[in-house]
Inverse folding.
């Protein structure tokens, strides 16, 4: 199978502090991979580096997305190329209406791809449908982006964006944290609904629960900026029982 | 620097001597104003009221009226901004009836110059200067319980390339009890000039004046406006001032809450770039009980732009249950941009609620990244966030046409911010 995302020996630091210390990972087209690992191991850093946040300095390695040099692209170019990050901590945008935000994003991507823009009326129809499928109250489209949203509403709003933007590669950074079981199912449905030979995802999570609903092709464990173990879906179950301790000791040995 | 201003002051007086006999109306008020101006002179930064704003640019003005005429094309272009609304158009300080179209509910009164009754107001140097030279202005009365609006007051000035002519308009608005008017005031022009406008507004019991002011003067202009508002019992004066143009601009407002239960909103936004300097100065006098005043001033400053907000709230002993609020917010888009904020509270009543605050910030990097990660180009992301900063100010403009005019004016301003 062709690789959609290839990460080779990636090193990154923030404020001169090395966080990613040689991450290598390949996600073939059509596969969903999970990344697990203790807090502070660099999972969010990896997701930010992949989406192009410039607080992080890449000090080594390379990332290929569909064969293109991902790290040379601006964040908006990566989005246009089909990359999507569901933020662990979604950002509030006071004064920006949610519907306007979603349409601006969708049309910016369409424009950049040379596709026709979607008018306000048709967009609202699409957005309402998507919101309903995610069991989001309709007034969340009218409110300012993430302002006054509960933790769960913010995560659902990330899923709404994902569903509307139809990425080719989604990174979900702990989208399941703080969600109840119903919300978890909605997130899983969102991802599973996109699953196709041309869609891949990287699901960052601490919990086996989500991985029962989105069954990953591979599971990787990130510890102190390195992938110390990779395996099939069983690895997530194993970690649920034994914790990260054993994996960490094993890696240190 | 005072030498420049002193010379300019003398030039104003000399020009007055030369033209006084040709000015309309009885000269007494003008001569008295000239005496006030002679003793007062042009203010320097040593004057407390002008501490943050230098009038050095006035060194170039002749105080003479402009000689150029507005071309029909240019006039048509400016008039197209009025969205087909009823309008009163002034060009170079003179009413142009053939370009104007008044609604039936309003009749224009005849222009006549007189000093403000209030001695402090009459002593302000630019009010005195206006009284000396003003040749025309909008004089309107809205009769009791008549609802009218929106009406556009468009003032165009065609300035010079080298010389700096001056224009003084003197407007007077009276809303009788229970009357309502939405007035959209647009000031625009080209070339170099000095605009010195004075407006006096009376809002009688239970009347409401909604005043949207769009200042999009020439980038080479010096533009000063002084507005006096008197709000009677239960009256509302609701204003939003959008400052976009001018090299040097000041919008000064003196608002008096004269009757119980009056409300005054003096909101403003200034979008400045290059070396633009704009100043919002307000004096809100609570003279009666149970009145409310609200001011939110937003500054968006790029390059070396300089924004100023001086806001004074005076609460008289009789003005119990006063509710006063003042907020100055600045968004600095460049490390060289500058904001000065001077709130002042002078309270003589004991049962009042008055607060003021100021914030200064930059665009938020997390917000920009969030938008870019969704495919929005950086430039558009910045524009979206700047617009968001202004969103509530615009949303507060009640009249949809007036709001559209303010939005249209803003639309043309993103370019200059280089975003
Ligand atoms: N903006 C930042 N400034 C300084 N240190 C940071 C910053 N962001 C993350 N870190 C550090 O980088 C390490 C990895 O963080 P993160 O990628 O968020 O881990 P995870 O998502 O796996 O919990 C942590 O030690 C964290 O403290
Ligand atoms: Mg994290």
């Amino acid at each position: 199978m062709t690789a959609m995302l290839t990460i080779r020996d990636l090193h990154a630091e923030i404020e001169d502090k090395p966080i990613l210390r040689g991450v290598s990972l390949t996600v073939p087209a059509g596969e969903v991979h999970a990344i697990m690992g203790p807090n502070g191991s660099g999972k969010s850093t990896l997701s930010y580096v992949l989406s192009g946040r410039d607080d992080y300095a890449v000090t080594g390695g390379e990332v290929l997305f569909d064969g293109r040099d991902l790290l040379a692209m601006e964040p908006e170019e990566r989005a246009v190329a089909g990359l999507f990050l569901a933020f662990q901590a979604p950002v509030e945008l006071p004064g920006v209406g949610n519907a306007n935000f979603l349409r601006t994003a969708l049309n910016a991507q369409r424009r950049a791809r040379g596709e026709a823009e979607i008018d306000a009326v048709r967009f609202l129809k699409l957005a309402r449908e998507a919101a309903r499928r995610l069991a989001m109250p309709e007034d969340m489209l009218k409110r300012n982006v993430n302002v006054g949203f509960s933790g769960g509403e913010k995560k659902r709003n990330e899923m709404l964006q994902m569903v509307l933007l139809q990425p080719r590669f989604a990174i979900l950074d702990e989208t399941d944290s703080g969600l109840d079981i119903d919300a978890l199912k909605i997130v899983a449905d969102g991802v599973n609904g996109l699953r196709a030979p041309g869609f891949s995802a990287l699901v960052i999570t601490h919990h086996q629960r989500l991985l029962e609903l989105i069954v990953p092709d591979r599971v990787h464990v990130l510890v102190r900026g390195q992938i110390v173990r990779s395996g099939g879906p069983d690895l997530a179950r194993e970690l649920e029982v034994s914790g990260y301790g054993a994996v960490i000791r094993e890696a240190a040995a | 620097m005072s030498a420049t201003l002193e010379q300019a002051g003398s030039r104003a007086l000399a020009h007055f001597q030369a033209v006084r006999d040709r000015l309309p109306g009885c000269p007494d008020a003008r001569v008295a104003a000239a005496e006030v101006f002679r003793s007062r002179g042009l203010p320097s930064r040593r004057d407390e009221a002008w501490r943050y704003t230098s009038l050095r640019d006035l060194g170039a003005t002749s105080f003479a009226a402009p000689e150029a005429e507005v071309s029909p094309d240019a006039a048509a272009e400016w008039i197209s901004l009025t969205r087909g609304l009823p309008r009163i158009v002034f060009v170079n300080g003179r009413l142009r009836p053939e370009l104007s179209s008044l609604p039936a509910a309003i009749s224009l009164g005849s222009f006549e110059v007189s000093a403000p009754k209030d001695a402090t107001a009459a002593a302000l140097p630019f009010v005195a200067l206006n009284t000396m030279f003003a040749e025309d202005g909008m004089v309107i009365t809205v009769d009791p319980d008549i609802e009218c609006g929106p009406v556009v007051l468009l003032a165009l000035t065609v300035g010079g390339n080298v010389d700096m002519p001056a224009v003084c308009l003197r407007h007077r608005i009276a809303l009788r009890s229970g009357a309502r008017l939405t007035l959209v005031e647009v000031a625009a022009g080209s070339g170099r000039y000095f605009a010195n406008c004075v407006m006096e507004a009376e809002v009688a019991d239970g009347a409401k004046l909604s005043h949207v002011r769009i200042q999009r003067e020439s980038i080479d202009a010096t533009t000063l406006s002084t507005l006096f508002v008197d709000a009677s019992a239960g009256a509302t004066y609701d204003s939003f001032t959008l400052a976009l143009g001018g090299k040097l601009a000041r919008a000064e407002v003196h608002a008096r809450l004269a009757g119980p239960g009056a409300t005054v909103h003096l909101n403003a936004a200034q979008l400045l770039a290059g070396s633009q300097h704009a100043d919002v100065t307000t004096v809100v006098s609570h003279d009666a009980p149970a009145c409310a005043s609200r001011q939110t001033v937003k500054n968006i400053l790029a390059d070396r732009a300089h924004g100023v907000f001086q806001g004074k709230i005076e609460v008289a002993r009789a003005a119990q249950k006063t509710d006063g609020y003042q907020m100055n917010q600045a968004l600095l888009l460049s490390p060289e941009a500058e904001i000065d904020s001077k709130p002042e509270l002078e309270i003589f009543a004991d049962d009042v609620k008055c607060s003021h605050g100021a914030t200064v910030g930059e665009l938020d990097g997390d917000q920009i990244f969030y938008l870019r990660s969704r495919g929005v180009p950086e430039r558009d992301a910045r524009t979206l966030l700047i617009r968001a900063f202004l969103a509530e100010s615009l949303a507060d403009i009640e009249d949809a046409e007036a709001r559209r005019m303010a939005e249209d004016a803003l639309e043309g301003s993103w370019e200059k911010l280089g975003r």
